[in-house]
Amino acid sequence: MTITITTTTIAAFGNHSGDGTFFNPGLGACGTTANDNTMVVALAAPDFDPHTPPSGNSNQNSLCGKRVRIFRNGKSVDATIQDRCPPPCKVGDIDMSPVWIFTLTGLE
């Protein structure tokens, strides 16, 4: 399932619009572990990668642990950045743990 979303809140990240999809989190690019009921997101690689230090260690990405607010159809949720969404995710796209996408869509 893909939904259209808008994200905001992080100054370094800015406001974006894109597609929202869901993923089943595990050990994320930020070096933390999450599950389907953990309120986390994965940012698209083009949004995530520029904040990874020159060492290439994504665990030290400056966006890790930051919060984003995701909007859709008058609803919003806050989530923590925990992972990187590889292509085909594009600028502005975000992968959400299932608990978030259900909150935004009302689907179970």
Automatic annotation (TrEMBL):
Keyword Signal: yes
InterPro entries named in the record: Expansin_CellWall, RlpA-like_sf
Entry keyword set: Signal
Cited Gene3D superfamilies: RlpA-like domain (2.40.40.10)
The organism's place on the tree of life at top rank: Eukaryota
Name of this protein: 12209_t:CDS:1
Organism: Ambispora gerdemannii
